[in-house]
Amino acid sequence: MRISAPTGKIQRSIELGLFEGDRLNKLVLDDLGFFVVKDLIESERCKELASLYSNLYTSKSLVRSPKHSTEVKVDSNQEFEDVFRNDSFSRLWKKLFNGNVGLSFVRLLSKSADSPSAVILHQDI
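Request: output the structure for the sequence above.
Response:
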């Protein structure tokens, strides 16, 4: 397999911390193909959502997709959907997509100890 990604440039950017920040750097995103926007969701809210996920998964209210062992589709759970409707995400959506964005479904990719498969190819948003 031939890898055509600019791995050297990506490694240097990671070492220098250029790939992340508290607001989107579109130039870095365009150059590297990824950028991590930190702290869009408060730590306490992340803990609440992790606990909710754990409870729903343990109770079998959320189950893995039969198509891939790392995919968990969330059907109509307002708690998870509301994450993407907060002001921080709204400002980010407008910068990325120049307009309105719809939400069709929420999918979580869960890497559990009992799921040795690689995570499916995806885009993180």
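The mean pLDDT is 78.
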